[in-house]
Amino acid sequence: MQTAPIPATTPSDADARRAVAPVICYPNETLPTPDMALCARARAAAEKTAEVLVPPRQAATFHVPAGGFFRITSVGGPQVGDLNLWNAHDLAERFYSGKTRALHGTHVTTGQRLWSSFPMLRPMATITADTLGWYGKDAYGGSVHDVIGTRCDPYTGNLLAGSQYHQCCHSNLTRAVADEIGLPLASAEPLVHDVLNVFMCTGFTRDTGQYFMKASPVRPGDYLEFFAEIDLLGALSACPGGDCSAEHSSDSAACYPLLVEVFTTPPDALAGWQSPAPNGYDRSHGR
Fold it and tell me: In sequence order, what are the residues at sequence separation of 6 or more whose Cβ sits closer than 8 angstroms to the Cβ of residue 194?
């Protein structure tokens, strides 16, 4: 026999409970910091070795050697992109957006890092340049380059609207990585993971706490640049929402390509640097 739910009542000390000050979950004062001076010297010596133009509503893959750089640039018009990263030699190690968010916050910029999944939990890439760094946080609580959104996908579209849309970022990334590593779609799909939303302007509404998007401030020529801490395989989708000012998973939004450029650093410019070691936890889990 089911019982009726107990109605919520407001306790007499509700205001006192709400007034408790918050505590930062992961104080990051001891977090290893990147050597930005070394990154600057390496970048000055690096030479462009590859580029990929990601078509609108499609995705493409690229490789970056450890110690090199990659730059994502807006070309043609305002456009956001969904970025996945993997260890080029072990696809089980991939970008961990949730831990990156916990360590750095909801949005990332110059000097902050993209961290990899367990058990490695190490820096994969460091942001070394961000032409939208001036944006900060707007009056709505919005900011750019978020690690809170998951990626537009066909499953949520089907759930909410009964659609069968195939140009969403999840499907774009699935096709791109399947082609890159020669796997069928069903085998490649589990490799696709939560993204860095490059150039996307997002936040949470103050009243309901819902994830929102608004027109990206990105303009042609704006870019986000990274230092590769390990050998990387990357995949970038040019989101079908364009600048995400109205909707995503859409054939009606104006969409533009995104340019990925790869720069390789000569070894002498990396003197004294080495890729971060895997996380030092002994993995005994108390046994």
Answer: 95, 97, 98, 147, 150, 151
Q: How many CB atoms lie within 10 A of CB 52?
A: 17
Question: Strand runs (DSSP E) across 137-229, as ranges?
Answer: 143-146, 196-204, 211-214, 223-228
pLDDT of residue 247: 81
Each residue's pLDDT tens digit, 142-182: 999 999 999 999 999 999 999 999 999 999 999 999 999 99
Contact 142, 132 (CB under 8 A): no
Cβ atoms 123, 98 nearer than 8 A: no
Residues contacting 154, CB < 8 A, separation 6+:
163, 164, 165, 166, 168, 170, 171, 249
| Residues 255/57, Cβ–Cβ less than 8 Å | yes
* Integer Cα distance of 131 and 93 in angstroms: 29
Sequence spans of domains, the chain: 49-265
Number of H helices, E strands in the chain: 6, 13
Q: Cα(first)–Cα(last) distance of the chain, in Å? A: 43
pLDDT at position 248 = 77
H or E stretch covering 54: strand 47-54
